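User: Can you write out an input/output pair for a complex, sequences first and structure second?

Assistant: Here is one pair. Inputs:
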Amino acid sequence: MGIITMKLTASLPAAVALSAAFALAACGGGNTPSDSGSSSSGDDEIVRINLDPYPSTYEPQPSGTTLIRGGTVLDGIGGQIENGDVLIENGRIAAIGTGLEAPEGATVIDAAGRYVTPGVIDIHSHLGVYPSPGVHAHSDGNEATQPVTAEVWAEHSVWPQDPGFEHALAGGVTTLHVLPGSANLFGGRGVTLRNVSGRTVQDMKFPDAPYTLKMACGENPSRVYGSRGRSPATDMGNVAGYRDAWIRASDYRDSWEEYWEAAEAGEEVSPPTQDLELDTLMGVLEGEILVQMHCYRADQMAQIIDMSHEFGYQVTTFHHGVEAYKIPDLLAENDICAAVWADWGGFKMEAYDSIRENLAMTHANGACAMIHSDDDNGIQRLNQEVAKALADGRRAGLDISEAEAWAWLSSNPANALGIGDETGSLQEGYRADVVLWSGNPYSTYTRADQVWIDGALSYDRSDADMQPVRDFMLGQPGEGEQ
Amino acid sequence: MKQLISAFAATLTLAAPALAQTYAITNGQVVTNTDSGILESATVLVRDGDIVAVGAGIEVPAEATVIDAEGGWVTPGVFAPYSQLGLIEVALEDSTNDQAASESPFSVALDVTDGFNPNGTYIPTHRMEGVTRAAIYPGTGHNIFGGQGGLVSTSGEADSVFESGSFVFVDLSQSGASRAGGSRPAAWAYLAAALADARGYPGRFAGDHEGDALNRYDAAALLPVARGRVPLVVQINRAADIRRAIRFQEENAPVRLILVGATEAWMVADELAASGIPVIIDPLHDLPFNFDSLGASLQNAAHLDEAGVTVAYATLTADGYFNARLLPQNAGNAVANGVAWDAAFRAITLTPAEIFGVGDRYGALAPGYAGDVVVWDGDPLEVMSAPTAVLIDGEPTEMESRQTQLRDRYINITDDTPFAYRD
């Protein structure tokens, strides 16, 4: 019990730091860099930007005390414990090790012959914004009406009744990042969700997770807009389009900063007009909104990296990154991750150089790499996708352990989403997002037996009552089918 | 004279595989797909392109080249029952995509094998993953018919197409309804009219008359379907539509149907079994991806098996020109969801061959079968397993592709040789 308290306390500063940074970032929400945490009466007259107008209302389900005993534990950060135990209390990982005592009243689960891992995190999903069934009315992921739509937020499109969520849960997915599509240069904000059932998307929002910005390279924006006879119609048009927006965002940020500085000095000044598009881009320039960028080709990624230097922001992750294996050194130098498929490609020219060893080679050559789905079917079996990538890497002579590869499914995406101090690994004090697999999760025959989210049992393969059914599926022939 | 000689030389080259030497694949766990089941530490003997012996006590002839399976698995090659292999190089580039022709005046008359490219870069990537044979499909264009499908090997050789006109493809799912004018009744009416045109060929096309639905070329191409010589492969998903298809077959003997998609087939499993209609499903299809598939279930495969329906597996959730190679993963997932291993493995080997009428030549390891043999480093349905050797028509094939070349070029990122000068 002492351990839990200590670890919980230890994790608190991180959470506080996150919120504080968030407030800073936003230059607002009632606070400015100079008066963060304090409130002065005069401050009320200074116009601020509300950074969190659609706040998370997520409440974890009650967590029991659960001891998962005697399994093979992959901790998500490279560690493997044989005959290992994981203790869950108060929604958090209370302890991990061997020979743990079961606290009084704990549910003890015999995991002998089975594997215990952190929950799978998919950094690239369109669940909710392109939900099942894929009818016209559900095509809510691309605001393809103009190439720069940094003002739209994916969460405003997410349909929480998408049956895809529960299928992903059966595949061990506990957290997912839902993005707008890639039709636009700036597609809009992404949202990080707990894979829980909720009546509203706010009920699913990962508390305090940073916002993200979806951007897209290459063929998609130039095809969508070029075919309409407008810019961007080419790769060079794409880059011009980004740069133009960043210049406007830089000016916008400057005007707000000038305004706040003057207003705080007591001068009579008018605030700039708020602009939703530029709010998001300003958040990126301030380092508070994480750039998640769709980019396939190595040379395109290199252009984007130069552009990020030009305007002083950080790209967090290149998504799809089919050619990441060609530039792992460049990615590592710039502290950028690659989120990739195991074996997809060929569907367009920029995906032509897809190879099965991409994930393993990018990782082994020093860059941060991870799996992603971008697909409502693929999200259900990301463990198998990593198994393929791992096996192909090993066949190419790369020495990568099963434990190391689990980072591709959990801690690497968690870090790339700015929630790596909360979830993505089995460490004391972390959220108890845990999957108990029927066997080695790198086997085709293995399935998730049980899934916990914040310590609450959320899915049980052997208990139909513990398998969520979205409203849409009620009364349908597939109700309750997995 | 000169022309004659080169033609003769070409014939010789083509015939070379058939005159090939003898190979003995030894020391393998051999999946025969016959009554012999799985044999431990057995040998497969291949001569002149065909399998001549399979068993544990087979003597290896002195002239045979030995391929030691080193205790791995030895199986028939995977047969993809639904693919666009060799038809598409880059899907979004129309100039490289020969799957469908929405602006052609023809439909059933289109023979997809005319567009098959044995030099396509995904032929080797499939071969290396154990796929040795595939049915290739036309996509639909201006009406519900795609055209005629064919059967190919992944040898990459000039004779890869081993059968054309193997089936006619028609879409009777919601997309077919849309193509027919906007409803399912419109699609079924069009099909009935097309069939009548075919039955009336050539008589009703005398003079300048065209058919009610089809022109003379399309009607001629549909005639073998009307006569039951060539099956009609029907894309269909909804249980009610599948019932309608069963009735259609009953009413239009000797027409023979094969269903592809069939996400709700488990809901009408007994009726399907009674009809004898085989189905090609993706065992991973578990989402209600449209209103035709609200009953989608991972148990589809197991339920159909239990009812005695003939089931083959396809990769309908992946691109059929690029990732039909993922069939073993799909079959493994069927096993994870209740199908017996043997049945799941047959569903990607022998059963597809049987569905297309070539089950006496492909899909099993037994004397008289083509020498399509795959040696795996583990259970072929495990995602971490891969082939170590692949024979097609009795000849070992290259285990190299454009993808492995890219891998080898970039795996040592610190090498000083400029990339374009590397192998």
